[in-house]
Design goal:
By secondary structure, the protein is of the alpha+beta class. It has helices at residues 6-13, 38-48, 62-68, 121-130, 201-211, 225-231, 286-295; strands at 25-35, 52-60, 74-82, 85-94, 112-118, 134-135, 141-142, 154-159, 165-170, 188-198, 215-223, 237-244, 250-258, 277-283, 299-300, 306-307, 317-322, 328-333. The protein has 7 helices and 18 strands. The longest helix has 11 residues, at 38-48.
Length: 334
């Protein structure tokens, strides 16, 4: 669930959030997730959440094997747009990966979601009920006024057909990016951020802020009955940190101060597993990023910097690594 201090709105409205001189990235390009049936997922995201398909492509061969760490692959990918933001849905025709764990919880460190902004929470929730989405929260939650960063925000967690957690989010007039308050007849407006569960905020800041070059745009501590019901985690108390690059959706760290029993990221997770999410960044130099990750002993998913000469992926060069908790991060050059 997103939180922002007032300074975030002022910074963003004034156009002051930029990558620093030593940043590895210039923006967030898209959020990717692995699906079991691309046609079903495209139907869900387009019909239920009003995404539009930008393109679809199939890929196989050695370059994609080196990039994903999955041998003998053949994939179908659809790039989907909502507002100004993109997701990418990828089905592995071969080899098929593992299904999502049925007992996954919101405080497991494999947790990742996208927060979709809505113009009317009651109407959006009714629309989701009409389409029989799987609840993750019991219903929309109104965060209390005592929380200066998040008071008045309404949020609801649910799942897509493969069990990926999603969030719809509504901001009161004094919070969020000003563009979420522009007059519109659209119900689903765009993606504000992707949220990831982390084990330690400082370790994640060293990766996303100090290494990639993102800027911290807000933080808060969230707890109480509404937060517990939103996350469906009894006794939830979270330290939330929001970061931004110069463009694209933000990234939110969800550090569970309590309970501390969330499971670590599966060490054998692969890109064809339905648990898999991936945050793709637009990079300044893939070669420089690769060397930086090697110097810092980051865990690599790809074999290093990988050239993709066929153009099917929408970029020509990329490297994929894992952050300190195991979440996949990809940096690309177009």
């Amino acid at each position: 669930m997103i939180v922002r201090r007032t300074i975030y709105t002022l910074l963003l409205a004034g156009g002051l959030v930029f990558a620093g001189p030593h940043a590895l990235v210039t923006g967030v390009d898209s959020i990717g997730l692995t699906v079991s049936d691309l046609d079903r997922s495209v139907e869900f995201y387009s019909t239920v959440l009003h995404f539009q398909k930008a393109w679809e492509a199939e890929a196989d061969g050695e370059s994609y094997e080196h990039l994903t760490g999955v041998f003998g692959l053949h994939t179908r990918t659809a790039r989907m747009r909502l507002g100004e933001e993109y997701i990418e849905l990828t089905e592995f025709l071969a080899p098929r990966g593992r299904p999502a764990p049925i007992d996954a919880r919101s405080n497991d460190r494999s947790f990742q979601h996208i927060a979709i902004i809505v113009s009317d929470m009651d109407r959006a929730y009714g629309w989701l009920r009409q389409h029989k989405v799987q609840h993750a929260s019991p219903g929309p939650q109104l965060l209390p006024a005592w929380n200066r960063s998040a008071g008045g925000i309404r949020a609801f967690y649910f799942r897509d057909p493969d069990g990926h957690p999603l969030e719809i989010l509504w901001f009161p007039p004094d919070k969020g990016n000003p563009r979420w308050h522009a007059p519109t007849d659209r119900l689903f407006l765009g993606i504000d951020h992707t949220a990831i569960v982390i084990s330690e905020t400082e370790a994640s800041l060293k990766f996303y802020r100090d290494r990639l070059g993102m800027e911290v745009s807000g933080e808060s501590e969230n707890y109480g009955l509404e937060q517990e019901r939103l996350n469906n985690v009894f006794g939830a108390r979270l330290h939330i940190t929001a970061l931004r690059a110069a463009s694209g959706p933000g990234i939110e760290f969800l550090e569970y101060l309590a309970p501390r029993d969330g499971r670590p990221f599966p060490p054998d997770e692969r890109a064809n597993d339905l648990l898999h999410w991936q945050t793709r960044f637009l990079g300044i130099s893939v070669d420089v990023a690769t060397q930086t990750f090697r110097n810092s002993r980051s865990a690599f998913v790809s074999t290093g910097a990988v050239e993709l000469p066929d153009g099917k992926a929408g970029f020509r060069k990329a490297v994929t690594v894992r952050d300190p908790d195991g979440h996949a991060v990809q940096i690309v050059e177009r």
